Amino acid sequence: MLACLVEPKPRITKKLTMVLIVCMIWLSLMGKVIYPWLFPAHVSDNTEKEVTLLLNSGSVISNEAEVRVIVWLKDGTIPEELKITKPLPGWVWNYRELKTEGGKVAATLSGQCSLDKNEERKLFTWYTDIAQGLSKTGSQVYLDERVPQTIDISAYLSRINAQPAQWDLTGSLLSIAAFQANLNTKVMAGKDRVNIQLVSRGKNTAGHTVLALPVLLEEF
Question: Does the global pTM surpass 0.70?
Answer without folding.
Answer: yes
